[in-house]
Write a structure and sequence with these properties.
Distance between the termini: 24 Å
Largest sheet: 3 strands, antiparallel
Order of helices and strands: HEEEEEHH
Number of strands: 5
Shape: globular
Structural class: alpha+beta
Number of helices: 3
Helix content: 25-40%
Amino acid sequence: MENNENKITLIDHKLSQRHIDLDPGGYFIIYLEQVAGLIYAKHFTNVVDEHGLTFEPESGKVIPTRGKIKGTHINVFSGRTAKQVCVKIFEETQPCPVTQLDHAAYLGRELMRAELALITSQEYIQD
């Protein structure tokens, strides 16, 4: 079992290093409130230029890939399960804030990871 876990970890790490095109619909910061038993997804808007750089609309500053986000979120979605948060984002919000299928798949994966961390009382760090 450990060997399989190592293989999965290596595959995941390699795939996390690939180039992705950012969603012009914005991005999400996912976090947990362990005591409340909730998963949160803060939605931020962004502007993507012709070079693929992402800027915060208010300040015009490039959004870093690491570190703190200084922009203002436009919505917060929360729920006790990944499915509940996904329904709020993809089915109950019009227009949908996610405009690319790869971004939708990423959010589904991350929200499931967050749910697992919530269930097991582990730390969650967004990929």
